[in-house]
Fold this protein.
Amino acid sequence: MRKLVVRTERWETAKPFVIARGVKNHVDVLVAEITDGANHGRGEGTPIYYRGDSIELAHSLAESVADSVASGISRAGLLDLMPPGAARNAIDSALWDLEAKQAGKRVWDLAGLPAPRPMLTAYTISLGDPATMAEAARAASGRELLKLKLGGEGDAERVAAVRAAAPNARLIADANEAWKNIDIEAMCHQLHAFDVELVEQPLPAGDDADLAHVRSPVPLCADESLQSRAELGDVVGRYRFINVKLDKCGGLTEALALVHAARQRGLGVMTGCMLSTSLGIAPAFVAAMQAQFADLDGPLLLGGDRPAGLRFHGSDVDPPAVELWG
């Protein structure tokens, strides 16, 4: 019989992490561990507060399904038993890890994917005034892909300053719902002049209908507006990309199904992450193997990481080692 154990951990950020909704100096994560006596699987989830999730709720929800996990519930069964969120992500990831160890295979083999190679990942520049963001971008100018956190008024100036500081970097941007009172089409034309390749979530989730007549030269990407396959129909025609996060959709099982469904609808895919350790990023790496953009820098933004954590070199991240996950 299997046994599920869950615990919470707090990890400090390397420096304040600033987005349009506020500042974070630490992140609380849920860790799920499942053992069958001979093999041990583990996973990690980060509650997404704007979805109403919290570390307390995630811990309670995970504990509430301990008997079902012990009785052998499948990953498919987990989708019906639990709502999307950090708790399901942690348990789903632990089940993938356990199944890989039981089979003596890597997770990508179980998922029917080819052997992975090092992957280009974005590196996040926190929201700040133009000079502060330029300084951060200059320090990271050797990285190939920078993701800029934007906040509304003054965003064109922020992007201009970053472009001057990192003239050779590829740029993507994340408005985090902050463009409610901004002329989005005009702003995107300004950002296009600085070769910005993608803009995430310009409007608050729920206001997506206002994008129907926006003709942006920069592809728009749904993040907060899309949690799982249930919302996919709502973003078609308004966005050209979706951001798949395992903590939103509730694990790698749903993420792989969401990526497939999005591609069937002609949508591009970005795989993102919350602040998390390498244990939380490892399953996202597998989902990102089918994405055009990967934003998997969560561990780089923390003050520390787990043993056998992901290896980042230059702009790339290596596939997870078996000692870490999968």
Q: What stands out?
A: The radius of gyration is 19 Å. The longest strand covers residues 3-19. The mean pLDDT is 95. Residues 119-317 form a domain with the TIM Barrel fold (CATH 3.20.20.120).
